[in-house]
Amino acid sequence: MSEPELSFHELAHRLRLRDLPVGEPSPDLWQRIADTHAGRVRRARTRRGLIASGVAAMLVVAVVVAPKWLGPSATEHDVDWQARAQALELQLHALRDGAGAHADNAGALETQSEIARVDDALQSAYDTGAEKDQLELLWKRRSELLGALISVRQRNVEISRI
Amino acid sequence: MAMNETGEPGAGFAQRVDAMTLARAQAGDMQAFAALYTMFGRPCFNLALRILGNRAQAEDLVQEIFLKTIGTIRSYRGEAPFGSWLKRMAVNAVIDQLRGQRHAAETDSESRMAEAATESTGPAAVVDAWSLLQRLPARARAVLVLHEFEGYTHAELAALFGQSESYSKSILARALKRLGELVVTSDESMPCPSRN
């Protein structure tokens, strides 16, 4: 025997689907939803606060601490190599005066020759109206050579005292 | 015509929301959301309950739907009535829930459908329509509820489930057949006052 085929409307009538009890959610469901939302908002605010604190800390590092870390290399560009060379020149003279006459070793003599070459280069640079950068490089080289010469002479003074 | 939960026009998801309440909700006013919940909490709950068949799951889903509403209501532009917008969100949430249930993946299989029809159908088990609906596999119940109660077309159901229209028609036909079998069985096993 074949099974009877019922349309939905017949089924709905037979089952009285229209009379299906209408369910009611728990009375406190909205309160739970509102509480959950409030919790999410609080957490989002905390997260935003943490992010803001992090950004503020990074700004502090960038503005206050980083210049200290980067200080030496940043100020290197601002060094007045000409003035520095002149200061070293005075220091060298003071050393020579204090230690009396000492025969310079080969290294010191070579450095002195190099200083003389730099001086020539500087003179011709000024004569030809060279760029500031080029002059700066020459003054820097002169300062380095004077520094090296001072080191050599300081060592010589110490050795002679021993 | 599809049946809503009360069968009356302007009830359920068809309720109209005044512009002021919507504007307040879009501005984040929780009192306005409470008013929207008062209007639509029950239709959402019943939609979820009819398909999922479990109160706790249905309440969790209502919570999820309203939290999502709070988060996305600013994107509501008013092209459709608010109830339709919310209903679409609710149906999508229910379908997502079904997809997430391992059990749902096998609900439309022939074996599960047959199992539903051969389970014990004593008088106490088939006495009300609600329990009969719950005897259908979840996906079949979803298709039946959405098509017959909420007015979804097969084309819309196909899009919702990511399947063809023939799939939706097939699921519905089989669900109705099984329901019919259960009704006949219950009629035969229960004394009917009209026959006496």
Arithmetic mean of pLDDT of chain B:
79
Number of helical regions of chain B? 10
Distance between the termini of chain B: 34 Å
Estimated structural class of chain A: mainly alpha
Fraction in beta strands of chain B:
under 5%
Q: Whole-number radius of gyration of chain A?
A: 43 Å
Summarize the structure.
Chain A has 162 residues and is mainly α. Chain A is built from five helices and no strands. In chain A, helix 3 packs parallel to helix 5 and helix 4 packs antiparallel against helix 5.
Description:
The complex is a heterodimer of chains A (162) and B (196). Chain A is mainly α and 162 residues long. Chain A is rod-shaped. The termini of chain A are far apart. By secondary structure, chain B is mainly alpha-helical. Chain B is 67% helix and 0% strand. Chain B is built from ten helices and no strands. The longest helix of chain B has 25 residues. Chain B is elongated. Classes of the chains: A mainly alpha (162), B mainly alpha (196). At the A-B interface, helix 1 and helix 2 of A face helix 2, helix 3, helix 7, helix 8 and helix 10 of B.
Topology:
The complex is a heterodimer of chains A (162) and B (196).
Chain A: H1 8-15, H2 29-76, H3 81-99, H4 106-127, H5 132-161
Helix pairs in contact in A: 3-5, 4-5
Chain B: H1 19-26, H2 30-52, H3 55-72, H4 82-100, H5 102-105, H6 110-118, H7 129-134, H8 138-149, H9 154-161, H10 165-189
Helix pairs in contact in B: 1-2, 2-3, 2-4, 2-8, 3-4, 6-10, 8-10, 9-10
Question: What key attributes describe this structure?
Answer:
heterodimer; A: about 160 residues; mainly alpha; rod-shaped; B: about 200 residues
